[in-house]
Amino acid sequence: MSQPAIQAENLHKRYGEVVAVDDVSLRVEPGEVLGILGANGAGKTTTVELIAGLRAPDRGRVRVLGLDPRRDRAALRQVLGVQLQHAHLHAALTVAELVDLYRSFYPHPRPAADLLDLVDLGKQARTRFEKLSGGQQQRLSIALALVGRPRVVILDELTTGLDPRARRRIWAGVEALRDETVLLVSHAMDEVEHLCDRVALIDAGRIVALDTPAGLVAHAGTATLEEAFVALTGKDLVREDVA
């Protein structure tokens, strides 16, 4: 069996009395698009932050392309692209300046024009980050995650706040990443069904089911993925809790 692109074993993370991630294990194969689907507060974002090395697990082990995200940070930056739900970028820099800055971090970055075309921000190239709409900031963070031609990409709430046209354009961009491994965090059923090879349903910090979208529907004995999620977790997708 080939080396997995992502291997997470028995991850656990607690914030005070709240357990955000509870014994999560995942294996993502090279070239696979794996969705993590859950209600708000289910533990999705914390899980991917542990995988990306942005947080340290209380227990458990993570490897991304064989690298330890905490110990091998410099090497991991060259092969891992991360787009998080909330972008924290220099407000006074323009879109073009931010893209050029991020391109300087990599030996063979994607062309700036291609990145801006992918996220439909060519007309905003000279616009400062602070002047972008929330959706435009989200699209820019996606472009920056792809600058270095990463082999593994983590996308957290990929199209939150985007209009239907922008969502479809971003979906097409993800579909074009078929040589890369993608970990897609979402609560959008149509997005997960459209893009993901397999889906992990997460609830209260635990993975309660892991299968193809069709397999989850068949396992739950329902007609749709949304109905399967409700059947397997006992919850809908609008619950607010800990991230």
UniProtKB/TrEMBL annotation:
Listed InterPro entries: AAA+_ATPase, ABC_transporter-like_ATP-bd, ABC_transporter-like_CS, ABC_transporter_ATP-binding, P-loop_NTPase
CDD domains (alphabetical): ABC_DR_subfamily_A (cd03230)
Keywords recorded for this protein, A-Z: Antibiotic resistance, ATP-binding, Nucleotide-binding, Transport
One biological process term in Gene Ontology: response to antibiotic
Stored Pfam families: ABC_tran
Molecular function in Gene Ontology: ATP binding; ATP hydrolysis activity
Compartments where found: Cell membrane
Domain called ABC transporter: residue spans: 6-229
Name of this protein: ABC transporter ATP-binding protein
Organism: Micromonospora rosaria
Superkingdom field: Bacteria
GO cellular component: plasma membrane
Membrane topology summary: Peripheral membrane protein
